[in-house]
Specification:
It is found in: Cell membrane. It is a multi-pass membrane protein. This protein is of the alpha+beta class. The protein has 3 domains: 101 residues, Helix Hairpins (Orthogonal Bundle), CATH 1.10.287; 50 residues, Roll (SH3 type barrels); 81 residues, 2-Layer Sandwich (Alpha-Beta Plaits). Helices cover 53% and strands 18% of the residues. It is built from 7 helices and 10 strands. α1 runs antiparallel to α2.
Amino acid sequence: METEMTNWIDNVWPKFLDAGLSIVWAVILLIIGIKVINVARKLLKSALERSNIDTGVVQFLDAFVKFAAYAVLILALLGHFGVQTTSFITILGSAGVAIGLSLQGSLSNFAGGILILILKPFVVGDYVSACGCEGTVAVISLFYTTLHTVDNRNVVLPNGSLSNSNITNYSANEIRRVDMSVDVGYGSDLKKAREVIMDILNQDERILKDPAPIVAVDNLGDSGVNVLIRPWVKCEDYWAVKWSVLEAVHNRLNAEQIDIPFPQMTVHLDQNS
């Protein structure tokens, strides 16, 4: 009996010892892995916060990195105990492909939302033009961006299409140039017309002195001389300045008896026909 007990201990004890050592190494690997993951997450969050990335993006990336890192750590622990992880990874990969194909559009919008939040081609409050629409950015979510138009409509754009389109951000800079023009008749005093227009610009306090406004002849049209009007204003004054300057130019030119021509056509009638 004693001999059988001794043989059993001799056979089983090494297995217990190996199992114990394997568990100890697994615990050490788990502790080190958790510490490495925490350090990596802190470094990532610090780098993202220094880049002035939105809080929502930082939280999303932190959660994604945490999930991916713990998944790798669990697979490493399973491999340490001799569990075959190849088939497990294959199943996960197949499931991921199937889900990705079924949610292809949503994933495209999701990826586009991440790019927009990270790269910041615009922020909430900017006036932008994209995908054939324009308006003030009201909401930026992970899947859609909502624009509020000047006629009080909400336009919802998918982030996948938005991130791949040309985006014009009218609010990106503090100042903006107002592009206008007016035609002056060939028989009018062109120099006087330019002086009148420049006087209008100089009297408007919303128009910046630097850069200086420009009034110049652009081309000689069919009906008159085209004069460019190029003042610089703050972005928030753009529309108000454009509307008021055009009205003032019309009224002042008429008051100074400077002709503003309109398209004309000369018709010759054949008397013999």
